[in-house]
């Protein structure tokens, strides 16, 4: 992470997303790339996720990400998921995923392009993504937008998950992003 | 407003739009979000509008904005609206709206996306919109453009409402933007 | 012109285009907006054009630009126009126009949008266009691109008109842009 | 090359691409424009390519680039090309090309637009392209994207050619980009 451009902000935003996802029971997964060589996924983040998937390809799709995402969630979670998020993730024809990570122009890019190719709706959280160089990072965002990804920010995700000031998690979320 | 990036310019442009809208009898509405908690809509701006709508959802649509916009205007106003604006707003198949406000990436974004989803033609006046951070603001503009909104500036709206130098409000408008 | 952002560069590029257009016999027209009030079109540029059109609307289309552009050119000119430019401008189903000027977000924008609406292929030469503020200028370019205009630069036009190093006007054009 | 904006980085990235292409047996070609007047193609780069094509038009297509690209490769090379790259380049309906060079807004742009017109999938490696001015270069990229080119960076190409950490050329490629 230290080599990543604006690493602190990227990490902070990923933490906000994972924390709120856990609180609102939005299923989340971590992927780690050849951890025995380049190190494990950040433990604080992994602990907030439902699971961590190991991979050797740069894209997480050839080694099973889509199966993981589209498998039926345990009944307990599905029931407790807020209604408007249930609709988006389970009833619609096009499943959606919120994605963030490093490096934006390698693993994240290749994964997102594969997901778009599988007809998923892909939200890329730009301020929770990073590359070593700003130019590679921004080129990844432009390319993802051109291929149909929805580029969003951490706060957009937070306020779209909440929907309004009366959401029971509103105060919790507001404290997170302060 | 003070926390908003370039707040002075945002406010100044919103004031120009509301003032000219009133002068040219283009119907305009203010929305205020949970005013008892985060304060009322700016009184100077509200006074220029036909009405102010309160809301608790971030998007203004679930609580009735579309009904407000597509309801028949009183006969007096409809007759006095300049012809080319009448056509745009009432006769065409796709009703249009000019939208501005704060925060660009939360309430304004969610409202605009809902309006686009309702098949309205949405003009977002970028220099009359703001967020606390420039990055969130610009990400909102990019996302809106990608979803079909027309990104415009205050001066574009002014000169497209006027159409030409012979418009009776030309001098009034020119003084406004100086 | 002095109030325009980067006025010198805008003027220099417009001059290059008009000079080469005249040399290569590409028909060109100037438009001037209410000249008795805001001054005549720059005489050096006007002298290079086939004609100058006066207008009072911000868009040049309601007062006859399209008729001017699509009227048959005099036989003498049509014959001497380079073959590949003849094809583009006269035989194809979609007539094309190269456009530049000030202010980018008012007269030029409204004219270009009207031309696009008329199914013309519109090339906007960005470095030969200007507005008083950079933000309005760039917003005009983004909006034009979103509406289907082809954004080009002066050098792009020059080298696409020439096609190759063996063009008889190659040396003349190279001296122009130096 | 010295006159090109960020010439060192452009050259370094072109060298990485040509070196890896040779190692992974991806066929590559150089084009040189009127070499007797403006000098030969850089010898170090040319030596890494399968061949060098001379041209006098700014676009390389009228003088035979597409024939060169779509001609059957010698059997030896075709067999040794990595499987996933074989698929992309030979079996799919739409042949693909990775393109880089100078000047981005003249020869490269015109060539790429012609290739897109021929229904090829065109990848433009932005950080291995240059123009004398940054504005012309960036305008070329925007125009190429608007016309359907895929804008990529050198590292994107490297990691998409490799596909994963287990590729036999992974270590070689990593040393190249360090």
What's this, in brief?
Chain A is α/β, with parallel strands linked by helices and 178 residues long.
Give a description of the structure.
Four copies of one chain form a homotetramer. Chain A is an alpha/beta fold and 178 residues long. Chain A has a single domain, classed as Rossmann fold. Chain A has helices spanning 7-23, 35-38, 43-46, 65-70, 75-80, 83-91, 104-117, 134-146, 154-162, 170-177, and strands spanning 29-33, 51-55, 96-102, 121-130, 150-152. In chain A, helix 1 packs antiparallel against helix 10 (170-177) and helix 7 (104-117) runs parallel beside helix 8 (134-146). The longest helix of chain A is centred in the N-terminal third of the chain and has 17 residues, at 7-23. The two termini of chain A are 23 Å apart. Chains A and B meet through strand 5 and helix 9 of A and helix 7 and helix 8 of B.
Keywords:
about 180 residues; homotetramer; two-stranded parallel ribbon; 3-stranded parallel beta sheet; about 15% strand; 10 helices; alpha/beta; about 50% helix; Rossmann fold
E-strand count of chain A = 5
Order of the strands making up the biggest sheet of chain A:
3-4-5
Strand percentage of chain A lies at 15-25%
Number of helices of chain A: 10
Chart the SSEs and their pairings.
Four copies of one chain form a homotetramer.
Chain A: H1 7-23, E1 29-33, H2 35-38, H3 43-46, E2 51-55, H4 65-70, H5 75-80, H6 83-91, E3 96-102, H7 104-117, E4 121-130, H8 134-146, E5 150-152, H9 154-162, H10 170-177
Parallel strand pairs in A: 1-2, 3-4, 4-5
